[in-house]
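Reopening this ticket.

The earlier resolution said the output was attached, but the attachment link was broken on my side. Pasting everything inline this time so it's all in one place.
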Amino acid sequence: MKKIIWRIFIIVLVVLVLAILAGMVFLDPIVKKGIETVGPNLTKVSVTVDSVHVSLIGASGKIKRLVIGNPEGYKTTNAISVGAVGLSLKLGSVLSDKVVIKSIELKEPEINLEGTLRGDNNLSKILGNVEGTSNSTNEPASQTTPGKPAKKLEVDDFLITDAKVHVSITGVGGITLPIHEMHLTDLGKGPDGITAAELTKVVLRRIVSEVTQVVTDYLAKIGKDVIQKEAGKIVNDAAGKVGEGIGNLLKKK
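Inline output:
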């Protein structure tokens, strides 16, 4: 009897291991396809990733090179590119109506700002697309199956570190500025959660706000420096002319 129970236990254990391995093999391309399908539906621009790896054992994941393209009419290669995105999950929530993501970290994103600071730029255009999607009564079709509502999300911690913005706006070009660390918490807390569109909107709003502030501060600084430089030049020129005038008076005496 003990041998039979032991054999059953071994068989169950092997089946579980095979199930986990199968999940690790097939889950990655499913997630990758989901990102590259849902992303463009939300942003109305191309969204691609090089690779996705989800570990069911560690309840964690990693996305390599996430690239968000630009709307038509813009010249820069893309709007945002991220070398690596790391995340950790609450494993038990994956099969529930609300997926709980403990943390997401975007490391060293490269952001391109093209256009003007008055809202007529590529980032604001993408944000407008996402806001239009999130305000719609229907989520993108790829997020739902007939008769089943879209999964809701909860993100406890969203961190963006070491970001840079490459500026190509009217009157200013060819400069790269560092962006302050961006930290968002408790997104979708509570039973209702948030949709993927709402999460994307919140994150993009923060990015657009931070980028606009950093570029505005930079322009204000260089404007102040130019004014101070010109003022100093005027003072020096005036002092030189006064000195020249005094010298001429002394010569006459």
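Reporter confirms the inline version is readable. The mean pLDDT is 79. The longest helix spans residues 196-252.
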